[in-house]
Amino acid sequence: MVAEVFTLNNLFVGLLFFLTASFHCAENSRQRRKIMHWGAFCCGLGLCNQHTLVLYVLVIVPWVLSRLHARKELSFLGLVSLGFCFIAGFLPYIYLPISSYLSTARWSWGDQTTLSGLLTHLLRAEYGTFSLAKAETSVSLNRMLQ
């Protein structure tokens, strides 16, 4: 069984909307804090799966922070705590260099044992959206020059 990237992305988008609505309807500070920590974790985990989730994160995060600020519930320690939850969502990326080094991965997207190889994978430089856009642009330019 394999989790399909785009279907899993839809799951994370739905989860973020559910958490956002739950945050909005939360009755007290304790509920909001619990929901926002789960939201930060899900944002990080969702971004591990598909980078297009950033389009939702860039809208939801400022809204949540503004709501917290308006209710006087925003603090430095709260932001640090949210940051740790967000980074914890990226923990699946720890597996990449380990499995690449041990050669235990069933499928591989290149060598992630070096920092440059890991960054190439994380930024989807070889096969991601930006790579497709570059290919489309070069094809269009070649057609125009002919």
Residue fraction in strands: under 5%
Structural class: mainly alpha
**Spans of 5+ residues with little confidence (pLDDT < 50)?**
136-142
Helix and strand run: HHHHHHH
The average pLDDT is: 81
Euclidean distance between termini CA atoms = 46 Å
Number of distinct beta strands: 0
Tell me the overall shape.
Answer: elongated
Q: Portion of residues in helices?
A: over 70%
Task: From the alpha carbons, calculate the radius of gyration and give it in angstroms.
Answer: 19 Å
Q: Total number of helical segments?
A: 7
Mind summarizing the main beta sheet? none
List the main descriptive attributes of the protein structure presented here:
146 residues, mainly alpha
Explain what this protein looks like in three dimensions.
The structure is a single chain. This protein has 146 residues and is mostly helical. It contains 7 helices and no strands. Pfam families: TMEM260-like (PF11028). InterPro entries: GT117_domain-containing, TMEM260-like. This is Transmembrane protein 260.
